[in-house]
Recover the amino acids of this structure.
């Protein structure tokens, strides 16, 4: 699948055994490629769903960022960040349009279409939502997006990606100058008890101490699965976690929500959030920030679903709950 400049690698869960069905386009997280959705793929067809997941740029089979884009990404200049945000929103829009038009998939035009991001993938869903009125979109592209996309879904969004402020005592091993891959893996895939999440006080979250039972998912995965599913993408995804990106991420997230509220996405009525209440500390502040942004816009734009006992790796460790919530969201 390619346009004039960009090529995308994607996988497909297959045609459900029904004439009309809903499709969900999946955008993966940091360091984990489309294979991270393998656990939920077999559950799609029985639920009357079809999943199509594509590797983001810089992941195998998809076009890497240009030198110019990489410079924008790593810049300390907010203007450069906003330009990068816009460029990637447009790129994701065209990836989605190509999937919708691909004759090899032959997706039904009558079905609903969700776009689901997981973890870092949520940044790209929000970037997509933010560019609906961009002058670079062709009228035909805009019309197709308006008529086909019905449900944006944020699965386990992280605070950095929506522009939330990090508490001073925060901990993130992925942001260290020399990251420890195993430490990051156990921290990101672990289960955490947060003493008082209802307080909405990020300083009271559990930053470091994951449970031994359930153990971190990374310790239960087969080495062969990890080898084919992961890579070090810190150079292309890591900068989005840094504080210098906070302002642009906040602005982009608010723009995305505003364009939903203002009806620019004709068939989108709300933005759904799925999160696990035993996830790492980055997710609750993201949820709170999204709620605050929605309130600032004067409306209730969010539909929140909680996976009880869920960690950050819900698609892999809690596939049945993931499918159930996605089906529920698209059935509304």
């Amino acid at each position: 699948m390619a346009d004039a400049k960009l090529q995308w690698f994607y996988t497909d869960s297959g045609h459900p055994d029904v004439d009309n069905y809903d499709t969900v386009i999946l955008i993966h997280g940091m360091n984990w490629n489309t294979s991270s959705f393998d656990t939920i793929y077999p559950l799609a067809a029985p639920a009357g769903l079809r999943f199509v997941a594509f590797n983001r740029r810089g992941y195998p089979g998809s076009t890497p960022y240009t030198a110019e884009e990489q410079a924008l990404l790593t810049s300390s200049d907010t203007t450069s960040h906003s330009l990068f945000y816009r460029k990637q929103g447009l790129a994701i829009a065209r990836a989605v349009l190509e999937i919708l038009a691909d004759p090899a998939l032959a997706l039904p035009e009558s079905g609903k279409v969700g776009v689901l991001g997981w973890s870092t993938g949520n940044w790209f869903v929000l970037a997509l939502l933010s560019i609906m009125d961009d002058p670079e979109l062709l009228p035909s592209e805009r019309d197709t997006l308006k008529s086909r996309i019905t449900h944006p879904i944020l699965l386990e969004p992280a605070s950095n990606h929506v522009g939330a402020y990090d508490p001073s005592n925060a901990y993130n091993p992925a942001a260290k100058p020399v990251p420890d891959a195993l430490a990051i893996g156990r921290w990101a895939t672990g289960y955490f008890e947060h003493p008082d999440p209802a307080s909405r006080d990020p300083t009271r979250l559990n930053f470091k101490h994951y449970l031994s039972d359930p153990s971190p998912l990374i310790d239960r995965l087969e080495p062969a699965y990890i080898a084919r599913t992961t890579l070090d993408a810190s150079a292309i995804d890591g900068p989005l976690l840094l504080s210098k990106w906070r302002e642009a991420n906040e602005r982009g997230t608010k723009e995305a929500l505003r364009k939903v509220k203002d009806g620019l996405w004709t068939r989108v009525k709300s933005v759904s959030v799925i999160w696990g209440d035993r996830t790492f500390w980055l997710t609750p502040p993201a949820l709170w920030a999204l709620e605050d942004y929605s309130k600032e816009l004067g409306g209730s734009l969010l539909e929140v679903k909680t996976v009880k006992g869920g960690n950050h790796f819900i698609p892999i460790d809690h596939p049945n709950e993931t499918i159930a919530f996605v089906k529920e969201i698209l059935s509304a």
In short: The chain has one domain: 10-331. The mean pLDDT is 96. The beta strands are 10-12, 22-27, 49-54, 113-118, 149-155, 271-276, 302-307. The domain at 10-331 is CATH 3.40.50.1820 (Rossmann fold).
